[in-house]
Amino acid sequence: MSSTSTDFSGLWVPLVTPFRGGAVDHAALHRLAQHLRSQGVAGFVVCGSTGEAAALDTAEQLGALDTVLDATPGLPVVMGASGYHLAEMRAWVRTLASRPLAGLLMPAPGYVRPSQAGLLDWFGALADASPVPLIVYDIPYRTGVAIQRDTLLALASHPNIRAVKDCGGDAAKTLALIADGRLQVLAGEDLQIFSTVAQGGAGAIAASAHLQTAQFAAVLAALAQGELAQARALWRPLVPLIEALFAEPNPAPLKAVLAGQGWLCDELRAPMTPATPMLRERLQALAVSRP
């Protein structure tokens, strides 16, 4: 059964996938999700890029999803879904339909670099196949293709495409989507959270919000209430932490901090590598101890 919720506003955390001895550490994932759910988050994303989804097989992805659903009853969960074989993607969407999802987070097909017409066909076909709404993931530095403004505005007319995770790096496109109003615009670059939401964006999908979660949520709440001075005061101390967390490929820095706080093992899957000692020292000076 699928969730009827289509509101993607607020703070969403794209969860890391903990590993122990090469296997998914479901106990650690369960504990982490339970902890974060009480910090003001709107929901979770499972198997996004922060979750190292590309290094998980389908059984592991479903297992991680089931663990998070079990840990966070009543809280919306979005599943990342990516690929470049349309029939296989349709089948995967049907498999995921057996879980109570709020939506699917879906990027353009990687490596293929289709035309804008091809992107319209791709997202349209998968939105038609999905029983839950799609969040279009515009992240050209991972997929190799930018989803152009006119393409996103055309996709907004599809009744099952409800939001965009905006990592496109195009401020004019972001503002056009916000002004159009049909898609909920979610900041996907953590340093763009304040500007996106202050200008009318709906929220954020923010890996950094594994840490200082309540403060990130408070920034969004203050912006929603028009309390700009309060929001700025909450936001500015978060900026150095965000910069450090993305100084090396995500999620290695984040996992280093979470491991230091005792939430999980500092373990990644190849080709990801652990954070460097120099960055670890920087993070230790910025990150708070485990709550």
From TrEMBL:
Its main location: cytoplasm. Pathway: Amino-acid biosynthesis; L-lysine biosynthesis via DAP pathway; (S)-tetrahydrodipicolinate from L-aspartate: step 3/4. GO terms for molecular function: 4-hydroxy-tetrahydrodipicolinate synthase activity. SUPFAM superfamilies: Aldolase. It comes from Variovorax terrae. Belongs to the DapA family. The gene is dapA. This is 4-hydroxy-tetrahydrodipicolinate synthase. InterPro entries: Aldolase_TIM, DapA, DapA-like, Schiff_base-form_aldolases_AS. Keywords: Amino-acid biosynthesis, Cytoplasm, Diaminopimelate biosynthesis, Lyase, Lysine biosynthesis, Schiff base. It is an enzyme of class 4 (lyase). Pyruvate binds at residues 50, 205. Homotetramer; dimer of dimers.
